[in-house]
């Protein structure tokens, strides 16, 4: 009893500390988020002018990461929404919506009135009811210079049958966050973890919320037992019976001293189990100790659910952190988790069996005491790709060694003396989008780094999970799309100015068209001109009522006066700096 009492006190103490940190972060980030609300309001104002659904056949979506890729619950289609792109100087956030027809191998861009504002690191879940729905919660918006963040706490549903977006306003939901996870469990959406970050502070969450698809109401769950520590970007999948969810891995960081942060890659596993009837459920956490071969520690991996409820984990990155540097090893391997057997195993392709056998034979000859059936360690493969500007990308791929099951299968087959053809496979990456449909795993985009340069991808692959023979390339990586603009000290001021022009290029495909739209917008709403020698403070004071009127029109009649005034000041500042 004494031990239990100490444990309960420790848990309550941790909850108090987390609550204090959340309040501190919320207070410091409030001003930053209000500055960004002006930009977000402008985007929504532009989207509100669209009154009709416009669908256009188009090329594959532009390079991006941290978007959502979901399988349509009724059709042979995939749905891609949002995401981000960084070119070395500027961060772009998207709220564009694409449908991929699996049979036709074609893309359609769907412009639907009143969509959610641009975001990345959100979560999207499809449900079959009502002709099919796509539910989207949370995520983040960033200033063009990538230094300020706005964390959403909104909930949206895309009605797939009618192609309409709806903003669901239900009280009691999770605080704003990104990097969280959301899954469907029976008739509930379960949201776990994530983080909230401002310029100076951050907080990681370990709370879990439930949203009822019957009553459209939020509730915070209070499971018994010891659950996962606060984290973001974990693997969260429902159990096949719908009576629980499984959490694996994730990432979190702490501040060890002023201006020094230390990241932690988690590799533990937990089961959140539901017991009791609907409306009277009791939830409990328990720790899982799976058998088999767990993935090496990593973050930024992609997750999907395949046949028989098997969870699929692809790629990711393992960062090696020093006080001044951050280097990462990127992966392109595939692991599967059997929820019934509580077992991990690597997803090895069968197309290179003979090659693996030859490597084992070579190993036998070169090392004493190791037989032909000895497990083989990971193998590194190095590729070089030359981009349009002449940069050479050296991509290191780590292919996991053969495991016992695969070796036994291979020993039954005849040895092939002919060298097998090299397999085509996705390069190592993190933050890619993945989903499964028709027994196939689909993988889109993501990013990897070479030195200080980030490469954002828009290649597209599929893998037959029943055959497990080879990846099929649906869209090849185009080096011409690898834009990277080096930043210099003299450009920092220009980047700050870019923040005030964040509406440019937010939606997919914007370029000259977006500039024309901006000009049209300026023609429609005539703003007070800046007088010669006038300071930004003078301009804000002189034109206050004009900008308050615009802010009120964007934010609606229910917005508080104080908040409207702050947004109005931010809008005036954006316009002043743009002149």
UniProtKB/TrEMBL annotation:
<feature type="region of interest" description="Disordered">
    <location>
        <begin position="282"/>
        <end position="301"/>
    </location>
</feature>
<dbReference type="Pfam" id="PF24681">
    <property type="entry name" value="Kelch_KLHDC2_KLHL20_DRC7"/>
</dbReference>
<feature type="compositionally biased region" description="Acidic residues">
    <location>
        <begin position="484"/>
        <end position="525"/>
    </location>
</feature>
<dbReference type="InterPro" id="IPR015915">
    <property type="entry name" value="Kelch-typ_b-propeller"/>
</dbReference>
<feature type="compositionally biased region" description="Basic residues">
    <location>
        <begin position="355"/>
        <end position="364"/>
    </location>
</feature>
<protein>
    <submittedName>
        <fullName>Kelch domain containing 4</fullName>
    </submittedName>
</protein>
<feature type="region of interest" description="Disordered">
    <location>
        <begin position="1"/>
        <end position="33"/>
    </location>
</feature>
<feature type="compositionally biased region" description="Polar residues">
    <location>
        <begin position="532"/>
        <end position="542"/>
    </location>
</feature>
<feature type="compositionally biased region" description="Acidic residues">
    <location>
        <begin position="403"/>
        <end position="419"/>
    </location>
</feature>
<feature type="region of interest" description="Disordered">
    <location>
        <begin position="354"/>
        <end position="379"/>
    </location>
</feature>
<feature type="region of interest" description="Disordered">
    <location>
        <begin position="398"/>
        <end position="423"/>
    </location>
</feature>
<feature type="compositionally biased region" description="Basic residues">
    <location>
        <begin position="1"/>
        <end position="10"/>
    </location>
</feature>
<feature type="region of interest" description="Disordered">
    <location>
        <begin position="482"/>
        <end position="543"/>
    </location>
</feature>
<dbReference type="InterPro" id="IPR052588">
    <property type="entry name" value="Kelch_domain_protein"/>
</dbReference>
<feature type="compositionally biased region" description="Basic and acidic residues">
    <location>
        <begin position="11"/>
        <end position="24"/>
    </location>
</feature>
